[in-house]
Amino acid sequence: MGLYVRAARCMLDGKVLQACDPFYTYPPIVALLTIPLVPLPLVLQNVVWYALTIGGQLFGLLLIVSLARRLTPRNWSTRELVLLYAIGILLSLKFVLATIASQSYDVTVVVFVLLGLTSLDRDWPGHQSSSSIWAGLSFGCAAALKATPLLFLPYLIVKGHYRAALAMAGAVVGLSLLPDLVAQVHKSGGSSYLLAWLGQVAHPALTERLQGNLHTFWFATNTNNNSLRGLVGMFVPDGAPSFSLALNAVYAAYCSVVGFIILATGKRPAAITVDGALLLMSMLMLSPMSSESHYIALPLAIFSITAIWLKGDTTTRRIAGFFLIMSFVLINAAARDIVGMEVTTWAKDHRLLVIDVLLLVVPFAFLVRGWRASIALPARVDPSVTALQTQLVVSRWRNDR
């Protein structure tokens, strides 16, 4: 939080944010929204921040459970709901605490995404309503605060949510320009907060420029980088001739698999949950840098797989149960208080959190495969009806003779 408040002071002073504080690498809108905290004493700043963070987590929990239950719309007993909450919270607790400890605003980003998914559930092509606009605005707010939710824009277009896509694009552009409209850069030789951020943060991160930046935070060899970039960095160091080729190959393979699953979900209501969980996971995997606090985007996937284990058919329940156990092991292998520093260091060095996300794709693939199979199979024929029809045909044949 202190970083955001310092950036807000820089904005009030009319300075380019990255020149004023090189460690501030977030979009300018975050600094603008933090300005109300500047005049408050540190104690009240913390009270407001933690209240917003914890309140956002609780609200997000309700949205996550609502989305997860749509995977299996059958009636839920009290026992099943208790298990859903208990297992989901147990597997997500590490990321919840990491978000609180780091004072990051990722909870707000995830809540906006969840609100967008909830509104999008009522916006399938053919019966669109005003909820499509609200969905797009929610996704747009998330993408303005953090670039990775931009992944939802091509998703909306591909799935036919055109009004939501337009609303999202408009919200991103409007909110991104807002700091330049209400504040003015008149120091540090800058002309635009947005252009400064694009040139000093976004462009270098996307073009693999490691030298000459005010602050380079996306090193693949950083053991705290739990993205696909960090996974590649285990084998190929930053700056190596083969690094870009290896990274792009991994990106292409991951996007192909996830894209195929999303395309296969179709138009059924439960598709929103699967698509949303996979895109939230992709925000972590495709980001130049993902730390533990960013993994607050993972609980929708965790709760969804838990719901599959509780209410799915026999095959999907077994698969979901196996991967929930694997997820528990991989997540807590990096928990210092549980396994100790030596195991935690080994887990970070081997990017177990990244491996966990990649493995969680598998239960969704099996779930969607089951959906497709149920559509392809013909309706089951009642043997008694078939026998009766056979007798009628034989009887008619005899009469004709």
Quick tags:
401 residues; mainly alpha; 19 helices
* Quantity of strands, as a count: 0
Shape: globular
The structural domain count equals 1
Q: What is the end-to-end distance?
A: 92 Å
Q: Report the average pLDDT across residues.
A: 87
What quaternary form is this? single chain
Low-confidence stretches: 377-390, 396-401
Describe the model:
- By secondary structure, the protein is an all-alpha fold.
- The chain has one domain (2-374).
- It has 19 helices and no strands.
- The chain has helices at residues 2-12, 17-20, 28-34, 42-69, 78-102, 106-120, 131-145, 152-158, 162-182, 193-206, 228-233, 243-264, 271-286, 299-311, 314-332, 336-339, 341-349, 352-376, 383-400.
- Helix 1 crosses helix 3 (28-34), helix 4 runs parallel beside helix 6 (106-120) and helix 5 (78-102) packs antiparallel against helix 14.
Secondary structure layout plus pairing:
Blueprint lengths: L1 H11 L4 H4 L7 H7 L7 H28 L8 H25 L3 H15 L10 H15 L6 H7 L3 H21 L10 H14 L21 H6 L9 H22 L6 H16 L12 H13 L2 H19 L3 H4 L1 H9 L2 H25 L6 H18 L1
Summarize the structure.
The protein is mainly α and 401 residues long. Helices cover 70% and strands 0% of the residues.
